[in-house]
Amino acid sequence: MSEKITFKELVELISRQSNQSQSSANSFIHELVQIIEGGLKKSGSVSISGFGKFELRWMNERPGTNPQTGEEITIPGQNKVVFKPYKALREDVNKPFASLKSTVIGGSGAKSAENESDSESRIEDEKDSTKEIGIPFIAAKAKEVRRTSIPIDELLIEHENPRFPEDDPFAGLTDSDTDTEDDSFVMMPPSLPNEEKVAEEVQKAGAFKWSYAAAVIIALIAFIILFFMFQRMGDSDQPATADQTEQLLTPVEPEASTAEAAQEPESPPPQTEFQTENYTVEPGESLWTIAESRLGNPYLWPLLYQLNSDIISNPNQLPAVADIDIPVVSNPENLNEFEREQVALGYFALYEWNRENNPDEARFFLWAVGVFSPEILEQPPSEVDPDDLAFALNR
Amino acid sequence: MNYKQLIDKLSEQTGNTKTRTKEILGDAVTVLTEQLSDGKGVSIPDLGTFSTKVTEQKKVYNPHYDAYMMVPPKRVVEFSPAAGLKEEVKFLDSGDE
């Protein structure tokens, strides 16, 4: 409890409330305490109307360990004093939250579990397929766009087209199209039909509606992404594809950097994937120790987890003698934006894993996401527990 | 010990009438409730500390609906008995349970 009032203050308040001297209020409380104690000893419970009931509860003997020596001991059975607040007190105390009600979420237990595992395997498939081509970053992006519906709009504006004001998504749309056309010829086929669609839909709508424009943008993005996915699957052996996709997903980056050149002097083409080295795990090593020895910072271990998700399913278990990919991190003390984002995504993957398998500690991983990349925490790649989010944001 | 017995005993000990004792006890309860509702903790020597805690929102399986329920956060009263009281009653053979 953050705040506390002293006993003196309490006595003062009671004496004022009941119009008596402080000393008599003081002795009244002391008598009350004596009687409660006596009552507990004699009958095991003392009830105070409108407040609550003090009770003795017998705790059976149970095994435990001595925290100092670590020795196994048996904690003998004993009485515990418990206080059960009555309804009036409970309701008064809970007033700030009284309006909140329990809500049913999800369908039947079995069903939702099935769905979850379903979607998880799908994600893993996705990861696997992208893994082969070696562009996890873009895969993560694609996942983000596909799995969330509302933030797509913001995502587009933020990532693809930072120059355009948010309240003018349509301008951003057309411009980004021309940009992509300039940047890469591969973009032509998908963007043309989309532009037609846009024009058509605006005409249909008669008056221009922002919500309409947003919907169109979402459709456009989905289309582009599907196109990429399709292409990657089709000819994954062509290394050129990866480069093109890079350009496509960050078409305005070069322009943005010229605009902000003064603020951000370092702007060679943004990094979108790690160079990796192969590493054979030796018995007794963990992701933590590998990250410490090879990356220079043990806290970067989620990167390893993220990059090797096909080998490592349980982050707490590393198959011995496995070959894993180790990213090349330029400076572990001062990560660049991409690296930070990747670490954050790694922590996010861990959050998701822990939410399934270790829900009590999952929130700490979500918090770590925010430490490395507050942006990702603000727009999580998939749904997070609001409670965990609050914890992560406020810690 | 029920409320009536408590009042009897208390009025006997303090020399107040039962009505007055009830009043004072009611006032004390009012003050305690107010403080706890304000989110403040209250310590009473030899008895223990009352405080409040906000429980986290949690997902709970409700077998009746065969569905998960989101149970909202709630502020609840916590009581931790004073060390002396705890020791006094620890190995007591209290019959009533």
Question: Can you give keywords for this protein?
Answer:
heterodimer, A: 395 residues, mainly alpha, HU Protein, Chain A, three-stranded antiparallel β-sheet, two-stranded antiparallel sheet, 17 helices, 9 strands, elongated, B: 97 residues, alpha+beta, 2 domains, 5 strands
Characterise the protein shown here.
The complex is a heterodimer of chains A (395) and B (97). Chain A is mostly helical and 395 residues long. Chain A has helices spanning 7-17, 22-43, 87-93, 109-133, 136-147, 152-160, 169-183, 188-205, 210-234, 239-249, 253-259, 287-295, 301-307, 337-357, 362-372, 374-378, 386-394; strands at 3-5, 45-48, 52-59, 62-65, 72-75, 78-85, 103-105, 276-280, 323-327. Chain A folds into three domains: 7-97, IHF-like DNA-binding proteins (HU Protein, Chain A, Irregular), CATH 4.10.520; 115-255, no CATH class; 276-394, no CATH class. Chain A is built from 17 helices and nine strands. In chain A, the strands form three sheets. A three-stranded antiparallel beta sheet of chain A has the order 2-3-6. A two-stranded antiparallel ribbon of chain A has the order 4-5. A two-stranded antiparallel sheet of chain A has the order 8-9. In chain A, a hairpin with a 3-residue loop joins β2 (45-48) and β3 (52-59). In chain A, α1 packs across α2 (22-43), α4 (109-133) runs antiparallel to α5 (136-147) and α15 (362-372) crosses α17. In chain A, 31% of the residues are buried. Chain B is of the alpha+beta class and 97 residues long. Chain B has three helices and five strands, in the order ααβββββα. A three-stranded antiparallel beta sheet of chain B has the order 1-2-5. Chain B has a two-stranded antiparallel sheet with strand order 3-4. In chain B, a hairpin with a 4-residue loop joins β3 (58-62) and β4. Classes of the chains: A mainly alpha (395), B alpha+beta (97). Chains A and B meet through β1, α1, α2, β2 and β3 of A and α1, α2, β1, β2 and β3 of B. β7 of chain A pairs antiparallel with β4 of chain B.
